[in-house]
Amino acid sequence: METTRLRCEVTEPFTARSLKIIPTQAEPDSKKFVVSLETVRDVSRHLGADGVLRWEVPNGDWVVQRVVALPTGAHNSPAPPEATGLEVEKMSREARPVLPVLSGRLVGSADQSDRFLWDLRRMVADRIARYYVGGLRDLCHEHGPLGPVGIVTA
Predict the structure, then answer these.
(1) What percent of the chain has pLDDT over 70?
(2) Is the pLDDT of residue 38 over 50?
(3) CB-CB contact of 27 with 110 (8 Å)
(4) What kind and span of H or E run contains 143?
(5) Helix (H, G, I), strand (E, B) or coil at 117
(6) Which residues contact 91 (CB under 8 A, 6 or more apart)?
(7) Are 95 and 10 in contact (CB under 8 A)?
(8) From 123's CA, which of 4, 60, 95, 102 has a CA 20 to 30 Å away?
(9) What is the C-alpha to C-alpha distance for residues 21 and 7, in angstroms, rounded to an integer?
(10) Residue in 74, 68, 61 with CA at minimum distance from that of residue 99
């Protein structure tokens, strides 16, 4: 008989819709499929301006992944003229060791990897709700509904 572990996720504010029961990913049978947090290294300081990685690679098998931040289209401010330019989405240094999760790897454990992905997806959903849908709502409040279909707010 197979058992399924469930994790209960609650988002704020608590409502009946905010309670979600999510099946938990099972831990793998072998630790060889899990990347230890201690083995993930940030080698970006070894990346030259020419894009070439110059790194004294320790013995062993290594996977090099490149994760980059792309411009958002917005310009940074306030900043002195010589420091102005396109803004990039910033990822905290604390998140860097778990970035291999984005390529399908388990980092630390299946539970840790799931939690990181949950937080990342929640952040993206919150930003879409606030800045995209919220921006449309604000435009409709300012200019009125655009045609027969409007945005209804509670």
Answers:
(1) 76
(2) yes
(3) yes
(4) helix 134-143
(5) helix
(6) 67, 69, 99
(7) no
(8) 4
(9) 6
(10) 68
